[in-house]
Amino acid sequence: MACFCLLAGAGTLIVSCKKESAPVTTTEDQSAVSQSTLDRISALGFSTAGVRKFNDGYLVEGDILLSEKDLATQKISHALHTPKEEQYSTTNLVTGLPRTITVRVASTLGTAFVTGTDTAIARYNRLNLRITFRRVTSGTANITISGFNQGPSGGGIVLGSAGFPTSSGNPYNSILMNTNAAAYGSNPNVLYVGSVIQHEIGHCIGFRHTDYFNRALSCGGATSNEGTAGVGAVHIPGTPTGNSSNSWMLACSNGGNRTFNAADIVALNYLY
């Protein structure tokens, strides 16, 4: 239901995802958001601070895109764990394990996105989890990676997007990557692109941001709690109660190559 978007701006890159299949063409500020919409967003367990209109939905907490359909769906908010920087999952996870998840990259995306996808897949598969990933070149895949083109807006730029697993136990089926030159440049760094895709796949299989309770820990700025997001924030046993430096699921990236740290691997092995 919920999703996240990767934003870049002023030396900081905000990693996350969103729920959408069409190219993003417009962005509006919070003045375009009605109070009734803000009330519905709040009822789903999201913070309403900084909400803005984004294409055919609403960008919440800097990196979560909700569609009108999402806002019409009543969800029961799940309890949050006491805020600490640990690994967190949603209450929805991928089921039917062991399982191979197929990933297809749209033909409209360039070589860097294909190679970046292969990089992300290889990183997951090296962990020998009960879920494995395989890139396919035709047919209907479990996850399709496609593109949108949008330049900077409001001091940042959306870099990528994805969402959470369905209640039926399937991974979220779409990742969007920004093809605008302002996002990755005219010659995208494969490790950077792969790190973003790796993060978005994490959302697709049920991982919340490591610092969901305070995005300022990795993004800077004012304290911002992402809330329950209607899908919970379940602490994963065995992950640290202190700072989880450089986790692949931090809300904001380091602007370059980032893969799993030791606690991330513990979390992935615990769930999958």
TrEMBL record:
<dbReference type="GO" id="GO:0008237">
    <property type="term" value="F:metallopeptidase activity"/>
</dbReference>
<protein>
    <submittedName>
        <fullName>Zinc-dependent metalloprotease</fullName>
    </submittedName>
</protein>
<keyword id="KW-0645">Protease</keyword>
<keyword id="KW-0378">Hydrolase</keyword>
<dbReference type="InterPro" id="IPR024653">
    <property type="entry name" value="Peptidase_M10/M27/M57"/>
</dbReference>
<dbReference type="Pfam" id="PF12388">
    <property type="entry name" value="Peptidase_M57"/>
</dbReference>
<dbReference type="InterPro" id="IPR024079">
    <property type="entry name" value="MetalloPept_cat_dom_sf"/>
</dbReference>
<keyword id="KW-0482">Metalloprotease</keyword>
